[in-house]
């Protein structure tokens, strides 16, 4: 676990270091928002049992983004994920996400009962195409990660339609074996309420072949 902590610290330091000069030149800002979704589906698996409120707060400076994203529902499901990432001008992005579940001990990072799953993220996009690769580096009983969990996703966006397919192992599948687990198509539109106020609306149809599940998700953003 100590090795994992050093790896995370090193990645975060690298991301901050490479953006230091650019941040001073381009300025920075804090933003906050909230999404309301009919249900929370992540990588082909539903979490919680009802409508989800998903708040976020982030700091952006040049290519650097750092923040916390969460998902909460009336049935008691709670998730709060700190993250840091850096997007390079040529389409590559690198980052680290800490999947944390409120209600568990915040500072418990043990394998048996730990409440954090630490993931290294990478992505590349060009035109309408996108690719991502994700690797969870630690075993965590409370977060249900096995350590070494993998997830890969490819997508293509044209106009306001996005199609994607993802596969993974570990906590992404019912048996822990690598399999296709997240296929979907989504679209979005903006509803104009007044000349100065509009509401973005998005919808997704998601199929998980590994678990034999179908989901329809609709959400609005503020």
Keyword list:
two-stranded antiparallel ribbon, single chain, 222 residues, 16 strands, twelve-stranded antiparallel barrel, mainly beta, 1 helix, 11% helix
Give a summary of the structure in a few sentences.
By secondary structure, the protein is mostly beta strands.
Describe this structure in words.
Mean pLDDT is 89; it is low at 11-25. The protein is mainly beta. The chain is built from one helix and 16 strands. The strands form three sheets. It has a twelve-stranded antiparallel beta barrel with strand order 1-4-5-6-7-8-9-12-13-14-15-16.
Order of helices and strands: HEEEEEEEEEEEEEEEE
Percent strand:
over 45%
Spatial strand arrangement across the major sheet: 1-4-5-6-7-8-9-12-13-14-15-16
Query: By helix and strand content, what is the structural category?
Result: mainly beta
The tally of strands reads: 16
Name the overall outline.
globular
Mean pLDDT: 89
Low-confidence stretches: 11-25
Helical coverage, percent range? 10-25%
Specify the biggest β-sheet: 12 strands, antiparallel, barrel
Helix segment count?
1
Q: Quote the distance from N terminus to C terminus.
A: 38 Å
